[in-house]
């Protein structure tokens, strides 16, 4: 294409500093603070949108776009700003460039890592992506997740009582698409109801939808489990009354994980309340995170496009060791070898055990607890690192303490095992940066890891949630969205089952006092 008399050309190559090879990257081009609404021919376009509508293609919600290492674009003469990013582990860049009429601005930029988690055996995943997918789009979508440096993108078919959205062409291993150390894994967010919350399932060899038993989530979990699936709740159990379903299914040990990091509810992404509720009642549950793209971003006022929905704006890391494969990743997730993050990186061990491990200890046995947080002084400056026991801070350091820095925080302590406990690490960084591990579970003399000091409180809170649900299903709703009343008899049976579990917990508490 011939250039106009008042236009010039931008020609950019972006490479990985280590390999010196072109690399997939997220690009945003602005002029005077406004996004340039011209899209390069090489921008990778895929249909995406809310409710599976065609709301976007080449441009992302914040007006950035993805390319596989290079692009060219004709632009009017003037000054521009070029932003380059590749997920959390690479240092993002911003460059001022000037386009002159009749000339080409040609430049190669190198992106460098500040940390390399795969070399540490940890691989990132976005556990909650909604984009319809066929085999034709796989290679294009792979550029998107490579540009965000997400090694596992979980693509979820979504459903509600009435309809399904974002279909996937296959499930289980037939639905996996992989390019080197990057892959897609299919799953489902279904059932989804406003009375019980939204569930997340991945890894099953097929989808499961029970329209006639829609509010009996446990039936779906059981069927998916038989098909090799892992199951949990979305949105931390905070949204859509998910805490009710979380108690209903969590106390009956139907769940594998809980999504505890996400920007759907607020700009404060870590959701601990319901997570600690289950853990303190002695229910092991793995921490995961997901963007819920294209639904959720950091901005909740509607006025900041730079904080809008983005794949990988939160992620969870799973330990696979020296080798990365679907089976090793899924097994690491099954074991709970995870931590969640929107930037900082955590390393946490108890007696050299990873998050998710269970330790059988004798009373008085010494536990060696180590935690490290990694950040970057300019991109992800750390503020504090904590070790928590039963949800309470056991030890804490800040970047201002002696021998601690904004790039590296460390904690180590010895603790005698006096009673069953769960231990986890969490850290905080500037700009709402946060990370949290799945716990290490310590049982003393075989008595579990629940918290005797708070068990009465959480039994009472669980009962409160059950009563909420009971009240919800007593009367017919005129809303088409609220259908739980149709399943009153079956839900009452499940509520009764949970109450028996709560009574057993009360009896155990009384005997121990």
Topology:
Blueprint: E1 7-16, E2 24-31, E3 34-35, E4 65-68, E5 70-76, E6 78-85, E7 93-99, E8 104-111, E9 122-129, H1 135-147, E10 152-159, E11 164-165, E12 177-179, E13 182-189, E14 192-193, E15 197-202, H2 217-226, E16 230-233, H3 242-250, E17 257-261, H4 273-280, E18 286-289, E19 315-319, H5 326-334, E20 338-341, E21 345-350, E22 358-361, E23 366-374, E24 382-389, E25 392-398, E26 408-416, E27 421-429, E28 433-437, E29 440-444, H6 455-472, H7 488-512
Parallel strand pairs: 1-8, 9-10, 10-13, 16-17, 17-18, 22-29
Antiparallel strand pairs: 1-5, 2-3, 2-4, 2-6, 6-7, 9-19, 10-11, 12-13, 13-15, 14-15, 15-16, 19-20, 20-28, 21-23, 23-26, 24-25, 24-27, 27-28, 27-29
Helix pairs in contact: 3-6, 6-7
Protein name: CehA/McbA family metallohydrolase
InterPro entries: Pol/histidinol_Pase-like (IPR016195)
Descriptive account of the structure:
The protein is α+β, with helices and mostly antiparallel strands and 513 residues long. The protein folds into 3 domains: 7-111, Immunoglobulin-like (Sandwich), CATH 2.60.40; 117-342 and 453-513, Alpha-Beta Barrel (TIM Barrel), CATH 3.20.20; 349-451, Immunoglobulins (Immunoglobulin-like). It contains 7 helices and 29 strands. The chain has helices at 135-147, 217-226, 242-250, 273-280, 326-334, 455-472, 488-512, and strands at residues 7-16, 24-31, 34-35, 65-68, 70-76, 78-85, 93-99, 104-111, 122-129, 152-159, 164-165, 177-179, 182-189, 192-193, 197-202, 230-233, 257-261, 286-289, 315-319, 338-341, 345-350, 358-361, 366-374, 382-389, 392-398, 408-416, 421-429, 433-437, 440-444. A hairpin with a 3-residue loop joins strand 27 (421-429) and strand 28. Helix 3 crosses helix 6 and helix 6 (455-472) packs antiparallel against helix 7 (488-512). The protein is globular and about 85 Å long. It comes from Rhodocytophaga aerolata. This is CehA/McbA family metallohydrolase.
């Amino acid at each position: 294409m011939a250039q106009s008399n008042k236009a010039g050309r931008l020609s950019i190559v972006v490479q990985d500093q280590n390999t010196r090879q072109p690399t997939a990257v997220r690009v945003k081009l602005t002029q005077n603070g406004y996004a340039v609404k011209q899209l390069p021919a090489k921008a990778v376009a895929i249909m995406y949108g809310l409710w599976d509508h065609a709301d976007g293609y080449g441009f992302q919600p914040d007006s950035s776009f993805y390319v596989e290492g290079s692009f060219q674009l004709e632009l009017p003469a003037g000054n521009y700003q070029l932003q380059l990013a590749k997920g959390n582990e690479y240092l993002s860049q911003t460059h001022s460039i000037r386009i002159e009429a009749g000339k080409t601005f040609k430049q190669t930029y190198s992106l460098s890592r500040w940390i390399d988690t795969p070399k540490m055996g940890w691989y990132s995943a976005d556990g909650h992506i909604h984009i319809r997918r066929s085999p034709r789009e796989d290679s294009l979508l792979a550029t998107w997740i490579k540009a965000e440096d997400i090694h596992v993108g979980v693509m979820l078919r979504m459903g509600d009582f009435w309809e399904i959205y974002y279909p996937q062409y296959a499930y289980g291993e037939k639905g996996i698409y992989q390019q080197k150390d990057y892959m897609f894994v299919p799953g489902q967010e279904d059932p989804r109801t406003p009375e019980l919350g939204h569930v997340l399932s991945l890894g099953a060899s097929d989808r499961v939808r029970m329209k006639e038993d829609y509010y009996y989530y446990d039936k779906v979990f059981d069927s998916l489990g038989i098909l090799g699936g892992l199951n949990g709740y979305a949105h931390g159990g905070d949204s859509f009354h998910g805490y009710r379903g979380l108690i209903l299914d969590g106390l009956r040990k139907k769940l594998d994980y809980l999504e505890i990091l996400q920007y759907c509810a607020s700009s404060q992404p870590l959701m601990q309340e319901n997570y600690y509720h289950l853990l303190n009642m002695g229910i092991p549950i793995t921490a995961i995170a997901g963007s819920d793209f294209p639904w959720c971003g950091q901005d909740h006022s509607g006025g900041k496009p730079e904080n809008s929905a983005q794949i990988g704006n939160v992620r969870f890391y799973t330990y696979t060791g020296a080798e990365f494969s679907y089976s090793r990743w899924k097994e690491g997730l099954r074991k709970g070898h995870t931590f969640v993050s929107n930037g900082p990186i955590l390393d946490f061990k108890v007696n050299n055990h990873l998050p998710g491990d269970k330790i059988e200890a004798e009373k008085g046995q010494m536990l060696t607890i180590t935690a490290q947080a990694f950040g970057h002084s300019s991109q992800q400056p750390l503020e504090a690192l904590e070790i928590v026991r039963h949800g309470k801070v056991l030890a804490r350091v800040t970047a201002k303490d002696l021998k601690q820095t904004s790039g590296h925080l460390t904690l180590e302590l010895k603790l005698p095992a006096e009673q069953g406990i769960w231990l986890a690490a969490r850290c905080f960084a500037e700009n709402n940066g946060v990370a949290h591990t799945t716990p290490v579970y310590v049982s003393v003399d075989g008595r579990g890891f629940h918290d005797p000091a708070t068990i009465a409180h959480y039994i009472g809170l669980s009962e409160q949630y059950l009563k909420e649900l009971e009240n919800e299903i007593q009367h017919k709703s005129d809303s088409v969205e609220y259908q739980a009343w149709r399943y009153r008899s079956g839900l009452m049976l499940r509520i009764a089952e949970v109450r028996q579990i709560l009574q057993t917990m009360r009896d155990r508490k009384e005997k121990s006092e």
